[in-house]
Amino acid sequence: MAWSILESWGVQLLQFLTFLVIARYVDATMLGIVAMALLVGQWFQMIILSGISASLVSKGTADADLDDTAFWISAAAGALLLIATFSLADLVERTAAHQGLGMVLRWLSVANFLGALNVVPQAWLTRALLMRPLATRSTISTLVGGIVGIALAVAGYGVMALVAQNLAVAVIGTIILWAACPMRPRLRFSREKARDVLFYGRHVGVTGAANFFNANADIMVIGLALGGAATGIYTVGKRALLAANLMLARALSRVALPVFSQLKGDPPRLAKAFLKIVSATSSITTPAFVGLAIVSDEFIFLLFGPRWAAAADVMRYLSLFGALQAIGIYNQSLMLAMGKPQWQTWLAGIYALVNIVTFFFAVEYGMAAVAAAFTARAYILYPLSVWPVVVLLPLGWRDYWKALRPSVVASLVMAVFLWGFRFALAGQAPIPMLLSTVIAGAAVYMIVLGLVGRTIVIDMFHFARAGGKRVSSTS
């Protein structure tokens, strides 16, 4: 668990810092073109490769014939994608009307092919709970890729800096992964094992397809309707939130799923644990994301520079979505733990469909409208995500709201206070404004939370104290 969390946080931090530096040296159009080209790899990973990986990890025990068969299936899929990308790249460029997109697609298709070759050794190490090599591989490859990308961006290579960064991550990651994994594929292919892989993978793939469109429909719609420059600006506004959510989602979901699975035989105890973890998470993430929305102007200006100022509105709306997503992770983990993955598939499909339809109407009013529509959809449909919780656990809607109420109320009071506070300080330089807003907001939030949610504060203190003792006793 420690190595998994280290990998998640370390990689996301390195990626964000690299993105932060490169964004100062490339223009919005270049950034948007690469963002659109990367969608191909994300689609391939979420719909095809994730299903193959899940079929191996879920096996629980080593199966050489299954591993060999899965390797050749993933390698064949990667080769087909490579050939298709090279063949269709120019057509995609003409259709999307983004000059340079074809060249970027061809180069990144090499990284996608390497990703296909890495599925089985990565699943093999995961199944064996050997997380340290995976963390080492991700951290080193991301660091090397960041150095390559930054060096080329500073030297003026533009879009090729972003391409080289992704290729370096793929190549270095592949070398380290295969050096760490003792498994070597053999020239064996079992039809029976292939049926097992494809049968299991189709369920994961359907969910992956829905999640892909749910997560990326905004970028696709903006890229087609508003062009590469708008896509680049939108990507900057979304990148900080994406890094925070990936760090948070990955760490929390890896903890929540096994805990809920262990407690599913005792529904009352599971319900109590679920409400406590939701309440504790909300008490930390809700004020953080609300605060991020409030300081988005200063955040974008100081980290990315004044030419990305238009990204602040995008970040403001998406930060409010992040506050909801942080607690929604537990609803998904509960459905998986209770053996209801098909419920999650249906929810992801509904969200994706509503997103695509909503974005096509909202894009007419600009990037900020798309971000606002994304967040509005999330809040309006969130009860659908809570419904499985009240069905599967012995708790009601009022119990769920009661767990969230202290942090929500304290965050709203903080937001109202900061609106007046910042109005009084209008005209201040970005750094003093940012620091004073953070300090004042944190103070107000803690005071109000202590008044309306004293139990949460006490629980968090005990959790921190117990964790400190555990670290001391094992060090």
Automatic annotation (TrEMBL):
> InterPro entries from the entry?
Poly_Biosynth_Transport
Q: Which domain of life is it from?
A: Bacteria
**Pfam families, alphabetically?**
Polysacc_synt_3 (PF13440)
Annotated membrane-spanning segments are 6-26, 33-57, 69-92, 104-124, 144-177, 219-237, 273-294, 314-331, 343-363, 369-395, 407-425, 431-452
Q: Which subcellular locations apply to this protein?
A: Cell membrane
Q: Where is this protein primarily located? A: membrane
Q: Which family does it belong to?
A: Belongs to the polysaccharide synthase family.
Q: What is this protein called?
A: Lipopolysaccharide biosynthesis protein
Q: Which organism is it from?
A: Sphingobium yanoikuyae (Sphingomonas yanoikuyae)
Q: Does the keyword Transmembrane helix apply?
A: yes
Name the UniProt key words of this record, in alphabetical order: Cell membrane, Membrane, Transmembrane, Transmembrane helix
What's any one GO cellular component for it? plasma membrane
* CDD domains, sorted: MATE_tuaB_like
Topology class, membrane: Multi-pass membrane protein
